[in-house]
Amino acid sequence: PAAPAPPRAAKPAAPPPPPNPAPAVHPRPVPIAAMPAGYYVQLGSFKNKEGAAALAKKAASRHWSSYVAPRPGGLHAVWIGPYRTRTEVDKAKQQLHKQMEISGFVVQTP
Q1: 49-61 and 86-100 helices cross at what angle (nearest 10)?
Q2: pTM here?
Q3: How confident is the model over 8-22, as pLDDT tens digits?
Q4: Could you give phi then psi for residue 94, rounded to 5 degrees?
Q5: Could you tell me if 79 and 40 are in contact, meaning their C-beta atoms sit under 8 angstroms apart?
């Protein structure tokens, strides 16, 4: 009888996929004109930058891309996004409400 064939070397396993990139967090104010166009969920608005930055970081810790957007009257708004369609932003708004217990509202940049 024939001798058994020598065992084949196992193919190396494919490398693991790269980890998901961390969500973008922009705790310093970003002028609205410099932000990507689209829809955003505004989570809150603060008189001081520190309060806005803290909420932006909290959102990022829950995997939401966030911006601090300067607003009239010296306010700093925390925006999550951008989203391309109204449907996408409405879905994100619902998820944000469940995760962070914040009822935001939708804003749109040109």
Answers
A1: 90
A2: 0.74
A3: 655 555 444 444 445
A4: -65, -45
A5: yes
